[in-house]
Design brief:
alpha+beta; 3 strands
Length: about 240
């Protein structure tokens, strides 16, 4: 308690507010405020590698994958490798992580360009969650990060029984529907442009020669999945 009190009396108001948000929303107590501010900063507001969360996202992706692999390995001692690999993929799927991040309240904590329409349908909050895991690992070490991930992410938000039924490849799902119903379907790259130091891809879904949905992403795979999801929602598949 004395340590926490001394932290508050040394910090400016904006850092105190941020520290309180970390504790109240994410159950994180830390003296390393800047590390978590970086983890929550998207490149749309911080362009340099030492200020935005892309490096921490890279690290957090690996740490999260290891924690999930360990969790599944211990929970299912008699399941074969194929099942464990598939379930891990479903649990760390970008769309799944994005939905979890939103439920956790990361939208109000993430620093990003709210006026950038390209970000509205993207998975930046799932990416931010991975960066947050990376920051937690650097701040607290693996064991405490493992405990935090299990308590704040896995147990409250990842229900293995439901995920077993989930088809995470929406593009394949849409193609399968089209083949089954004798429909002409294709995904077409509509636009590729530079956005800062990255390329932004736009992909259209054509059904029977008509564009029915579009998606955007910083790689073609994510853009295709976004387009497929929009098409599936529109058609009620």
């Amino acid at each position: 308690m004395l340590k926490l009190f001394s932290f508050f009396i040394r910090r400016p108001d904006h850092e105190i507010r941020f520290a309180r948000q970390l504790r109240e929303v994410l159950a994180i107590d830390t003296n390393n405020i800047q590390l978590y501010r970086t983890a929550l900063s998207h490149r749309s507001v911080k362009e340099t590698a030492d200020e935005n969360n892309e490096r921490l996202e890279y690290l957090g992706d690996a740490i999260l994958s290891a924690i999930i692999a360990d969790y599944l390995f211990k929970r299912y001692p008699y399941k074969e490798e194929g099942y464990l690999t598939e379930m891990r993929s479903k649990m760390v799927n970008r769309q799944q992580l994005n939905e979890i991040a939103l439920r956790m309240g990361l939208r109000k904590l993430t620093f990003y360009n709210k006026f950038d329409n390209a970000l509205k349908g993207s998975q930046i909050f799932g990416n931010t969650l991975e960066a947050l895991v990376g920051a937690h690992y650097l701040d607290k070490g693996y064991t405490q990060t493992q405990q935090w991930v299990l308590q704040q992410v896995v147990l409250p938000h990842m229900f293995v029984e439901e995920l077993e039924e989930l088809d995470i490849n929406l593009k394949n799902k849409l193609i399968g529907w089209a083949n089954k119903n004798g429909k002409s379907l294709r995904f077409e790259l509509a636009e590729e442009k530079r956005e800062g130091n990255r390329r932004l891809f736009s992909i259209d879904v054509h059904l029977e020669g008509e564009i029915i949905a579009s998606g955007k992403g910083y790689n073609k795979k994510d853009a295709g999945q976004q387009a497929a999801q929009a098409a599936i929602l529109r058609m009620g598949i």
